[in-house]
Specification:
Length: about 280
């Protein structure tokens, strides 16, 4: 029978992990969560383009993404990193480097293939999140963007509890009334967690006709502005629909890089600039 002293103490292990998280996060200047009340609004798309935009704005900026959507990770695909694997060394796990030097950590890098689901209960998910935060050698960063899963469940709650020094959250919505309703829950969630709400990004805000230039309101007009006013938060920007966004994401190139002259890329850059101003004036 094993000696009791040889049996790992789970409380000591957890405390050690928390110490590691604190140490790793202390070298990151700004931590920003990107959340949404519901799925299908383009949250990961916004995360990828904001991270890339932050890296582009100043070449010496060090930016990384934690893809915390454990059961539906798609950041690697959008960054052209599908099939890559996390490295390891004496300092810890190494992020995969994407466009503009943006580091990426995702559950997708640990799965054997696209068909393999992550069928985990809450405790396993929480353990993975603590490992990503504490055992990854993030290094000194200017920005860490955390792409959270839809809703206000375990993963989102854990991230905001583990990172009490979070600079703020960006909430992604689309103009539909259904999305507006759940965005209010996301704003309330952030406020209950005492995390500043940087503002709302309205994705899919109208389709600009490539032939006549007229804007077609696919959902409804002004939904993002309306919910921002009702919840007393800033509308950071409205991203128009551009069919090339989906194409570029599938091909693994951030839209903000491939189509810099497009209205959507311009809107992304405006959101990036507003975020930079917010962290400077904290």
């Amino acid at each position: 029978m094993a000696d009791r002293d040889d049996v790992p103490n789970p409380w000591e292990q957890k405390n050690h992990q928390m110490d590691l998280i604190k140490k790793r996060m202390s070298s990151i200047k700004h931590k920003i969560a990107v959340i949404s009340g519901k799925g299908g609004v383009g949250k990961s798309l916004v995360t990828v383009n904001l991270a890339t935009g932050l890296a582009v704005n100043s070449r010496d900026k060090r930016v990384a993404i934690l893809d915390a959507d454990l059961t539906g990770p798609c950041v690697p695909k959008m960054m052209g990193l599908k099939g890559e694997r996390l490295g390891s060394g004496p300092a810890g796990i190494s992020p995969v480097t994407g466009p503009e030097g943006v580091g990426v950590v995702s559950m997708d890098f640990l799965l054997p293939d696209d068909e393999s689901p992550v069928i985990w209960r809450g405790p396993l998910k929480m353990g993975a999140i603590r490992q990503f935060l504490g055992e990854v050698a993030w290094g000194p960063l200017d920005y860490l963007l955390v792409d959270l899963p839809p809703g206000t469940g375990d993963e989102s709650l854990s991230i905001l509890q583990l990172l009490p020094e979070m600079d703020g959250v960006v909430i992604v919505t689309i103009p539909s009334e259904v999305s507006q309703a759940v965005v209010k829950k996301a704003v309330t969630f952030a406020r209950k967690m005492e995390v500043p709400v940087f503002g709302i990004v309205e994705n899919m805000a109208g389709l600009v006709c490539p032939h006549c230039g007229e804007t077609i309101e696919v959902f409804s007009e002004g939904g993002g502005a309306k919910v921002a006013e009702e919840m007393d938060v800033e509308l950071l920007g409205s991203i128009p629909i551009d069919p090339r966004i989906s194409m570029d994401s599938d091909e693994g190139t951030p839209f903000i890089l491939r189509r810099p002259g497009s209205p959507a890329a311009k809107s992304f850059r405006e959101v990036v600039e507003k975020i930079e101003k917010k962290v400077k004036h904290e």
